Amino acid sequence: MGNGVTVIEAGTGGAVVELDVLCRAAGLGPQWAEVAVRAGLIAGTPDEGFDARTLQRLRRLAWLHAHFDADPELAALVVQLEDEIERLRARLRRLGAGC
Length: 99
Prior knowledge:
By secondary structure, the protein is mainly alpha-helical. 59% of the residues lie in helices and 6% in strands. It contains four helices and two strands. Helix 1 packs across helix 3 and helix 3 packs across helix 4. The longest helix has 24 residues. The chain is globular. The relative contact order is 0.12.
């Protein structure tokens, strides 16, 4: 691509990006993101690439790290709990309980 962003088309039709692009978009150094990948804190691999949801998750991890000096594992736990809360709220909305 002409803008310097390396994009790979995933088999499911969604675009995925390489790790270096993911890091720049999240405002993190590659070392922090590599730790997150190795620890399984974000989905994807350098070979497969990373999707937009992973970018959003990495940005949330980075925000927690920057604002609360949270290490990657603690930040990942917080993000996982936030995701679970949102999933449960969506379930309540579907059931008509309204949140």
